[in-house]
Amino acid sequence: MPPSRRRATLATVAASAGVSVATVSKVLNGRSDVAPETRSLVLSLLEQHDYVAPPQRRGEAAPDTIEVEFDADLNAYSTEIVQGAVQAGADLDVAVVVSIRRNADRTGGWARDLVAAGRRALVAVTGELTAGQLTALARARLPLVVIDPLNLPRARVTSVGSTNFAGGMAATQHLLALGHRRVAYLGGPATAACNQARLHGYRAAMEAAGAPVPPGYVRTATFHYYDGVTGGAALLDLPEAPTAIFAGCDDIALGVLEAARARGLRVPEDLSIVGFDDTQIARMASPPLTTVRQPLREMGAVAVRTALRLAAGEQVESHHVELATELVVRGSTAPAAHTGG
């Protein structure tokens, strides 16, 4: 926001609407004793003036609050993120509110509503944010930190992730070391930064080993179980099917396990599978899943701590932080059954 542009007040909006400040306040607080026409006019002017309610003074409000926002239903991955964020909040005496808001729900008043609700900062997880939404957050002066962003419409958006490229290389090198040469990759959205890094790590390992990547051996969809089932089925039904599959997340890997089971294939005797994340489901799978561990709880904690620093007006050392990944070998991988694999 340009320095010359002053924050709109209730009085500004009331004067534009030709009503009292009390009436504007009633609209903001959702009171029912306002005529529908007046309510509609006031809401429209609040939008036009980019009105943001001032934060309540300490002592009048609940503890400092950060919102951790997901754009899809919670799963094993997001639960780990939440655990880390909530623990960091407890350590810092900050309340952490978890919400699910689809991209279509991030309307023009979304950022102002967050500020009016007392949020000091927003942590968005694996979301896809538009330039307009980033502008709305900037106008509301609401700091943003993104975890595993699906896109970065602005280079200076602060984000937290992991060493996805190194993790992708480690997963693929593990399979190559077991003698597999027909290794496929089944990942998430093609445009997701984390997916691209994992895929590049896979390709780098394959190229370094002189292992070809035949047509059809790389597939992308979403980071969901059902895409692991359908994508795994497509890979396993190829004329020359892979003997090993590197899945872009644990949910996808479990879908591949189901696709293999439906075809009478044994894991790991007939097919080796590596996931990514090391969520609880990786340890509960049958067989337990070899996977690349992301420090998901620490990623949630780092995002909360970074968001609080931004809210306090501090400068951060880097706009993107990557935490180290680690390959965890369990029972879903084994040596290739024959030298051709």
TrEMBL record:
The keyword Transcription regulation applies. Gene3D superfamilies: 3.40.50.2300, lambda repressor-like DNA-binding domains. GO terms for molecular function: DNA-binding transcription factor activity; transcription cis-regulatory region binding. SMART domains: HTH_LACI. Residues 8-62 form the HTH lacI-type domain. Keywords: DNA-binding, Transcription, Transcription regulation. This is Transcriptional regulator, LacI family. It comes from Microbispora rosea.
